[in-house]
């Protein structure tokens, strides 16, 4: 079963979706997800390699950098993968990693690192997308200081893309996770399907070759990739949770009939499925617009993240209510979806923050047109 | 493809030469409620419709033998795209009902003779059809209509009863009317549709004043109205099938309405998207457009707008992929409107603050100012608020859509029904004394 961000997935994409599902089920099935949530090990090296073989990490990189799209639109490909991963509660910073891949590929920078990322040798993620890091110039490079929190899987990453406030506006650099001055601290978190960390940078030096362009447009695209994949992961988690709850509503009997026949339950689920359908529609619209280079693509991605952030938690809450006491137990999967969707609504910005960016994007668009 | 391109060029040329460019949206609201269809206004609209028909641009997908053009939905879409900047015939809400609901329903069920006789007159703008289906005692429970049609020995029918909430009933030429023709059958059987002339002896049409003060809908009373078999739409006693088709189109299941193609819904390949300009105007006129809380309310409404457009595109694709579920999917579009229109209208009121509840009187309220003066944004917002539950009630309430989604799309079991098997006569009798016992 696939999430079907697009109702009729083109053949190549359907194959990516199905293979992603199969691979996840083989490399990190539900039992492993549960063990991981209980503090057990995350996936090993084979997990990343298997994902790389399916193209997971290369969809947003140009072919000249070892990337390539399955369907002709790498954004749709990546969104489909993110949705399948979300549905299966997969670990790993897929969103942040994809942002880094896209950024390096567009900049044509760090040809020594990019192939490692697309081939699944290691993870990378994005730090400072919401502020918190400052930069001063240091020779021809940068010196980075600051704290960021709630970074997914920072300890599993070999590279960080750091966005920081420089003396004359935003700057960016790629740094190794083990660079002097980098501290990664494990946090406890509500979302047990992923590991969470705080990262401190104190006087981290980034050489000139590691400095990346940080124009408004580049940053806007990075946000758009993060928004799209966050929304897609959330849509996948919503889809899986909702699929479970519909089955439950059909099979759980109370007062002599399935609970799904009670209007209070049926209507709640109808509304819930509307949020789900709209969320999928938004992910598809944003992915298609990004692929087309449409002028409103970044706005659509921000809107998708805002919508799925709010509606995703509502879907999880509604499912919770329909599961009854069962949803309150550790044994039931409901809480994993609730946890993941709760984190997704914040990780790359709250719905309010996404909406604030919508205004910024509109203002930037107007400025450009004038 | 070249065929479509040539068609597009031809359409564009004709429209430019024969129609007026469209000015700003009309005063009032996007549903077109509140426009007064005086005889002069109506005559002008009919004349424009006639020209459209004569030029071959009415009934684009309607078969040629019924006065249409026999072209594809793609042609229809091209026409729609080209026509956007021009003024087309506008018969208000009833126009949508007539052309987007009544015509396709008739095409699906009426006899070839009926279609050959009636459709050309609709396309030429001579005969406009309203929907006579809701009754004072049967709205959501449409199969519970009590208007009766009795067949007489000479083969004619006698219609008696009443209908209500008929949009545009006061300027419609006909009503597509659902009546009970067999009271000894369970309620979904024994129903039949008729085309009832609004001017037939025995028909009384009365306008109903709405919450906005306008009077766009009507009630009708039928006092032994004589009809013939020529007026029957579809098969006698099988009116429920026709009803289902009708409701599908009513809920936007056709080419227009809430289900649109990805291009048409504008989620791809269009320009930048300014944040809800109409709401920004409400806030700006109130001097509140810099308030971060107001800005968040507006942006949230804008996000919902984008999500609705994306849903429209998705529904089109879902229906194409699985036409058997079309009716259920159409309910999503309807429910989205029923949910988000009121939410959006409230957002506008919040954006306007005190200015949204009281504003300077303008021309329309009897004060000085030109006919064309832009009404204050707050006035528009309050009109929209009062109209905002249109989609959540008309054509099947939100609750009815939720049932349809729950049962037809999600496959949840139906609620126990105790009125579907027994003769309708008995249903009415038993309802009066119902004590909560089922079966
Ligand atoms: C602006 C406007 C234009 C209209 N235009 C037309 C027209 O052109 N032609 C026409 O024929 N009709 C028209 N209608 C009528 C419209 O279709 C009905 O109002 C609608 O179907 C609801 O019926 P009702 O008003 O009888 O409400 P009711 O059916 O009495 O419903 C009242 C409340 O009970 C709820 N309810 C009823 N049954 C159930 C159930 N089984 N489960 C849960 N809740 C239930 C409803 O959802 C609603 O909240 C129009 C209505 C409006 C508001």
Question: Key terms for this structure?
Answer:
heterodimer, A: 370 residues, alpha+beta, Butyryl-Coa Dehydrogenase, subunit A, domain 1, Butyryl-CoA Dehydrogenase, subunit A, domain 2, Butyryl-CoA Dehydrogenase, subunit A, domain 3, 3 domains, four-stranded mixed β-sheet, four-stranded antiparallel β-sheet, 11 helices, B: 439 residues, 43% helix, globular, binds flavin-adenine dinucleotide
Protein architecture, described:
The complex is a heterodimer of chains A (370) and B (439). Chain A has 11 helices and 10 strands. Chain A is of the alpha+beta class and 370 residues long. Chain A folds into 3 domains: 108 residues, Butyryl-Coa Dehydrogenase, subunit A, domain 1 (Orthogonal Bundle); 90 residues, Butyryl-CoA Dehydrogenase, subunit A, domain 2, CATH 2.40.110.10; 154 residues, Up-down Bundle (Butyryl-CoA Dehydrogenase, subunit A, domain 3), CATH 1.20.140.10. A 4-stranded mixed β-sheet of chain A has the order 1-4-5-8, with helices on one face. In chain A, helix 1 runs antiparallel to helix 3, helix 7 packs antiparallel against helix 8 and helix 7 packs parallel to helix 9. The longest helix of chain A has 36 residues. Chain A is globular and about 75 Å long. The mean pLDDT of chain A is 96. Chain B has a 4-stranded mixed β-sheet with strand order 1-4-5-8, with helices on one face. In chain B, strands 2-3-7-6 form a 4-stranded antiparallel β-sheet, covered by helices on one side. In chain B, strand 2 and strand 3 form a beta hairpin. Chain B starts with a helix and ends in an 8-residue tail after the last helix. Chain B folds into 3 domains: 99 residues, Butyryl-Coa Dehydrogenase, subunit A, domain 1 (Orthogonal Bundle), CATH 1.10.540; 112 residues, Beta Barrel (Butyryl-CoA Dehydrogenase, subunit A, domain 2), CATH 2.40.110; 146 residues, Up-down Bundle (Butyryl-CoA Dehydrogenase, subunit A, domain 3). Chain B has 13 helices and 8 strands. Chain B is α+β, with helices and mostly antiparallel strands. The radius of gyration of chain B is 23 Å and the shape is globular. In chain B, helix 1 packs parallel to helix 3. The interface between A and B is large, with 49 and 51 residues. The structure holds flavin-adenine dinucleotide (FAD).
């Amino acid at each position: 079963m696939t999430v079907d961000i697009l109702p009729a997935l083109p053949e190549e994409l359907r194959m990516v979706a199905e293979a992603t599902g199969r691979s996840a089920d083989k490399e990190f099935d539900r039992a492993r997800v549960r063990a991981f949530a209980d503090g057990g090990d995350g996936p090993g090296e084979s997990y990343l390699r298997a994902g790389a073989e399916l193209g997971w990490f290369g969809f947003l990189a140009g072919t000249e950098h070892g990337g390539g799209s399955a369907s002709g639109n790498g954004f749709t490909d990546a969104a489909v993968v993110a949705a399948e991963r979300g549905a299966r509660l997969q670990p790993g910073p897929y969103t942040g990693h994809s942002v880094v891949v896209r950024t390096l590929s567009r900049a044509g920078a760090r040809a020594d690192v990019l192939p490692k990322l697309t081939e699944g040798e290691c993870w990378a993620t994005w730090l400072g997308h919401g502020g918190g890091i400052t930069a001063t110039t240091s020779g021809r490079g940068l010196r980075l200081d600051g704290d960021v929190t709630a970074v997914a899987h920072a300890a599993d990453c070999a590279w960080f893309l750091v966005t920081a406030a420089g003396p004359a506006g935003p700057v960016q650099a790629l740094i190794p996770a083990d660079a002097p001055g980098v501290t990664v601290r494990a946090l406890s978190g509500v979302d047990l399907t992923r590991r969470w960390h705080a990262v401190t940078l104190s006087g981290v030096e980034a050489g000139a070759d590691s400095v990346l362009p940080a124009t408004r447009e580049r940053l806007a695209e990075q946000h758009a990739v993060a928004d799209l994949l966050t929304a897609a992961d959330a849509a996948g988690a919503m889809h899986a949770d909702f699929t479970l709850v519909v089955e439950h509503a059909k099979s759980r009997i109370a007062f002599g009939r399935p609970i799904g026949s009670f209007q209070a339950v049926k209507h709640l689920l109808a509304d819930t499925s509307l949020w789900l359908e709209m969320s999928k529609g938004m992910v598809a619209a944003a992915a298609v617009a990004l692929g087309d280079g449409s002028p409103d693509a970044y706005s659509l991605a921000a809107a998708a993240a805002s919508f799925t952030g709010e509606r995703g938690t509502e879907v999880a809450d509604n499912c919770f209510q329909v599961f009854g006491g069962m949803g309150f137990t550790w044994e039931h999967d409901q809480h994993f979806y609730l946890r993941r969707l709760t984190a997704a609504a914040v990780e790359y910005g709250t719905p309010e923050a996404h909406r604030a960016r919508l205004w910024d994007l509109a203002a930037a668009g107007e400025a450009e047109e004038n | 493809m070249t065929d479509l391109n040539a068609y597009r060029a031809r359409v564009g040329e004709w429209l430019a030469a024969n129609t007026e460019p469209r000015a700003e949206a009309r005063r009032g609201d996007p549903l077109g409620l509140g426009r007064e269809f005086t005889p002069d206004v109506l005559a002008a609209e009919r004349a424009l419709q006639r020209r459209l028909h004569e030029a071959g641009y009415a009934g684009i997908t309607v078969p040629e033998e019924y006065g249409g053009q026999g072209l594809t939905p793609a042609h229809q879409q091209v026409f729609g795209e080209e026509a956007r900047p021009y003024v087309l015939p506008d018969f208000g809400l009833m126009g949508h009902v007539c052309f987007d609901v009544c015509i396709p329903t008739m095409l699906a069920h009426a006899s070839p003779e009926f279609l050959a006789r009636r459709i050309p007159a609709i396309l030429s703008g001579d005969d406009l059809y309203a929907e006579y289906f809701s009754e004072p005692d049967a709205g959501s429970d449409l199969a519970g209509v009590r208007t009766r049609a009795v067949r007489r020995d000479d083969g004619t029918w006698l219609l008696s009863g009443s209908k209500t909430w008929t949009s545009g009933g006061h300027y419609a030429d006909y009503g597509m009317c659902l009546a009970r023709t067999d009271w000894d059958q369970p309620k979904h059987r024994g129903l039949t549709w008729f085309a009832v002339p609004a001017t037939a002896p025995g028909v009384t049409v009365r306008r109903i004043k709405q919450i906005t003060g306008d009077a766009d809908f009507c009630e009708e009373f039928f006092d032994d109205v004589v009809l013939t078999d020529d007026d029957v739409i579809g098969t006698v006693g099988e009116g429920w099938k026709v009803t289902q088709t009708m409701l599908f189109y009513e809920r936007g299941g056709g080419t227009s309405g809430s289900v649109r193609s990805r291009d048409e819904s504008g989620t791809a390949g269009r320009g930048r998207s300014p944040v809800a300009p109409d709401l920004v105007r409400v806030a700006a006129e109130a001097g509140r457009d810099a308030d971060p809380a107001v800005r968040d309310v507006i942006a949230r409404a804008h996000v919902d707008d984008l999500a609705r457009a994306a849903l429209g595109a998705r529904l089109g694709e879902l229906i194409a992929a699985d036409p058997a579920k079309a009716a259920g999917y159409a309910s999503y579009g309807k429910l989205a409107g029923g949910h988000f229109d009121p939410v959006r209208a409230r957002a506008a009121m919040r954006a306007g603050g005190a200015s949204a509840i009281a504003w300077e009187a303008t021309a329309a309220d009897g004060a000085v100012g030109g006919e064309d003066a832009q009404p204050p944004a707050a006035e528009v917002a309050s009109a929209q608020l009062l109209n905002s539950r249109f989609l959540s009630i008309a054509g099947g309430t939100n609750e009815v859509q939720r049932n349809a989604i729950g049962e037809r799309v999600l496959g949840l079991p139906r609620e126990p029904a105790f009125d579907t098997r027994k003769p309708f006569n008995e249903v009415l009798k038993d309802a009066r004394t119902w004590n909560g016992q089922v079966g």
